[in-house]
């Protein structure tokens, strides 16, 4: 009995030391995500100048200028996914439901259970929704119990891990969307890859489920002790009561702005358009239909047009830093593509691959490229032109190769802070403390997914 107690004390001491080291390391050495984007721009330029076949200063500058603006349309689509998801999650019915659900939470382990139960399905439906739900649930739990706030927010971000394995996966959706400029498979083969062959395949579901289960079981053990914890300032985050029509002076303008009939009418108008689209083209989600679906749900939940506008204003204020980073990552994408740097990285792995191992090597190269191009869609524009032809020449499974790139994006997101910006902005905490805990998720998911992709390839 005494030996068991001593072992537990030793394990707890190691866990506390690891958590403390991670927090100190990230707080001291990790700069703001926008600064990381700036630094990566120069790192990519230097690599292109030294390694790429078209790495002259003029080539690099032209590629950066062109790439910075090629990503604008895609960036707007990604922001719409995030904004429409935010509008759903910030609606009064959803917030009330979240507040009610957290009342039973009294321990860190229960906090993890609830976080995963809410964030995982929300993320699978819409990664923007999952991000916002994670931030809101962390805030509500932090009001309920005394637990490290950075750890709570990191738990929400960890539960969001499967963002590229769900219905809003930009890589899977683009390959399932006819005529999408990012559909490299269709451009090379004339065929699309249905979601049943990508998202709903065992190749995707098995590592996704295993990672979610493993991280959910392990994460509670890394909750910091009281002496190392940072808590939510509850007074700073008291929500303003939503305006109601009874507090607004009536006028023709306010009658329209606060008309639930107008929101209901436009929601059903959009639903009719969506239903007609599905009738003519078959039921299935692509980027556009997913955005429209969440727009409809958000309008119905927010009830009044002005309430929906206010929710969008709040979302835009919190996601501005991400929008600012898109042109720089677009420029990085441009440098990697136009100079041939991405080709050098990807072709290296292709040369050492076989039909069975190509998904694994695509996974490994995807991990590297994600740190330079963290947007999944932009990332696919860099890596897709090399891995899809390789899959065709090696007769490898194209859906497996596609999803190996997407799964690696999930893993690398736990260290690349690009998508952590909105959740920390909504939650109101420094990103460095959050990433200290998600680095643990990175290790867990790297082990689980690399083994799974290798065995299932």
TrEMBL record:
InterPro entries: SCFA_transpt_AtoE. The chain crosses the membrane at residues 34-52, 64-89, 124-142, 199-222, 258-276, 283-301, 328-353, 360-380, 386-407, 414-431, 437-456. Keywords: Membrane, Transmembrane, Transmembrane helix. The keyword Nucleotidyltransferase does not apply. Pfam families: SCFA_trans. Signal peptide: none annotated. This is TIGR00366 family protein.
